[in-house]
Every structure is written in structure tokens, then in C-alpha cells.
Amino acid sequence: MGKKIRRIMMAALLAVFLVSTAVILYVKHNYRVSEALYSQAAEQYTSQAPEEDPDPDSQSAPIQVDFDALTAENEDIVGWIYCEGTPIDYPVVRGADNDYYLHRSYDGAYSASGSIFADANNREGFADCNTIIYGHHMKDGSMFASLSDWGEQEFYEAHPVIWLLTPGQDYRIELMSGFMTSAHADVYTIYQEPGEEFEHYVEAVLAESDFQPVLHSEGTGRYVLLSTCAYVFDDARYVLFGELVPADSTGGRRIREGEGQSQKE
Predict the structure, then answer these.
(1) Which of 39, 91, 158, 210 is in the most buried spot, having the most CB atoms within 10 Å?
(2) Torsion of CA 251, 256, 258, 263, to 10 degrees
(3) What is the pLDDT of residues 93-126, one digit of tens each?
């Protein structure tokens, strides 16, 4: 009787091991598929911007995007987000709701990594006072997993700007605040028009920052909030908040005019 029970237990443990191994392999496979897809997208639709200005403080975007080809792939694409020295190098989409792109890639196909997507409640063209952009916190470090790295002052100072390129205008996102919050916090309130209430919102966001900002340019008065999951408490999120500052470049137009076509290194 004892031997039979032991055999049953061993068989059960073996089954659990095989199932766990299969799940791990499946997850790793999905990571590899997503990484390959987005690497191919970056290679196909973006290139290094021509070195027109040797000034290291140049206000031009370091990359350019072929938005004609990209939006022909999917009309929901509204931009490209990029930060040198980090995994952030992705198209930005905006769906009819905030669920569609949670598990779909930028081309609409199923993807466990989902997409980087703007809040469906925001107006098009990043026209609101604050636009929210979401991305998964993937365990392989992809998508928006690196947002929490900005919690360290040293990392922030090495990466004080994230680039947001759109079909009509390139922007520097000059980062002003980064902190842990709840998915249900007031920071996710969207303001379409400026006013006293929005000013209080900005003041509250800046007061929460884990880092001390070092940049201050004359921006548009429009901001973006980048958001990802954080596994610190239930419904935890890490957010980065920055102002949109128009760049001296318009990446999509440069490619459409047939100028520099060199690939990113």
C-alpha cells in the first residue's frame, strides 16, 4: 500500500514538474518572439538620424521614423518612444479602449508583451494637458520594465530625456518626476485643458519624485505620464512624468523626403 502511494506521489510530482517546465518554456518562447518582432520593427521603420549637428546638446531626435510605412501597417500607431541606453525603443499605439493592446503587438497580432499604448480616453495628437502611456513590466526587462530604474538619481542623470516622435513633430520628454503609486491614484486623472486644478495636479506629481530633476526647458505645457506595473504591493505602479518639449527635428518627414537612410547602430 505504501509503495503504491509513493508511486502516485512521484507521478504527481513528475506531472507538476513537466507542466511547470512547459509553462517556463512557453513564457521564454513568447519573450523571444516579442523581442524579435520589435527588433525587426526598429530595424524596418527607424534609422539613425543624420549627424547634422555635432553639438552633444543638440535638440534634434537621435533617430528618425518612417511613419508612412508604419501607419500603413497599423493606423492606430501614433508615435515612437525611444531612450538611448535602455530597452525603450517601441512604436506607440492608441486603441478604441485600454484593453485591446494589453495582449496585442503593434501590428494587432496576439502578444503576451502587448504594446506601448496611449490611453484611449486621451485626445489624438497628445493634445491634452497630460497623456498617459502604458506598457507592461516584462520580466525579461523589455517594454516598460526599466521605468523603475529612474528611481535612482544616478540613472536619471544619465537619462534625463526620453524621445517621443510623432508623424507631425518630434518631442523631448524632459523627465520631471518618477515614483511608486497605486493604479487607482489621482495621478491617472486626465486633464484636457489647463487651469488651477491641473496646476495643483502637476505640483502634487512633482512633490512625489524619487529624483531631483536637472533640466528645465520652455515646453509646451503638455505632459506625458509613462506607467507600468510594479510588484511591490497590490495594484502598484511605477510612473515617470515629463513635459513635452518640441525638438528641432521631425523624424517622419525626413525619411519621407528621402534624406538619410542609415540604419541605427
Answers:
(1) 91
(2) 50
(3) 999 999 999 999 999 999 989 999 999 999 999 9
Tens digits of residue pLDDT in 45-90: 998 877 655 454 558 899 999 999 999 999 999 999 999 999 999 9
Nearest to 36 by CA among 93, 109, 94: 109
> Taking a C-beta distance cutoff of 8 angstroms, is the pair 169, 227 a contact?
no
Q: Cell 518612444 belongs to which residue?
A: 81
The DSSP H or E segment spanning 78 is strand 77-82
Enumerate long-range contacts of 116-121, CB under 8 Å, 24 or more apart: 116/81, 116/90, 116/91, 116/92, 116/143, 116/144, 117/92, 117/93, 118/78, 118/79, 118/92, 118/93, 118/94, 119/94, 119/190, 120/94, 120/95, 120/96, 121/190
Q: What is the pTM for the complete model shown? A: 0.83
Exposed (0-12), middle (13-18) or buried (19+): which is 80, by Cβ within 10 Å?
buried
